Amino acid sequence: MTDTRIRLFREEDWDEVVALEERAYAASGLSEGRETLRSRYHASPSTCFVLEHAGGFGGYLLALPYPLFRCPDLSMAEEVAAQECNRGSNLHTHDLVIAERARSRGLARRMQRHLEETGRAARYQTLSLVAVRGSEALWSRLGFRARPGIGLPASYGNEAVYMVKPLEPAVTDTAFGTSPRAEVG
Predict the structure, then answer these.
(1) Residue 117 pLDDT > 60
(2) CA nearest 74: which of 91, 58, 92, 56?
């Protein structure tokens, strides 16, 4: 897959991110809008990525530190000052969307693996997310386990499920100095 890479966000990505997020979530009432999405990014720019695929925009992933068993409220923007207090051992996968033209190629899994590597390098112990629109089975295949007793903000709807995945320490090859990078070729 040499025509695919994962990189950090750039300012010029926002129009495509917002349009894709709206296509993915507006019909289900889960769309957040530009300013709320940007607030999630500003809480942790080093854990938010864009997928470039076949010479174009292929998707995005927004993740930010959040206390374990808590999650952002879709109806409210993040306050970066308050978010600094939330830095800890958990990295929350807030949103992962693959563009329609790039789906069914394993790219969501690839982006999630990239986030896991980034989380391990930053010494996070767990990843969390909220599975929406019946995606619990997909996330379970990626190693996440449902925590149905966790109360979620009403903005996620009745069928959302909080999920957690432990991040095992990375096995690194010190002879080659391997580590996660912001760009993957």
Answers:
(1) yes
(2) 92
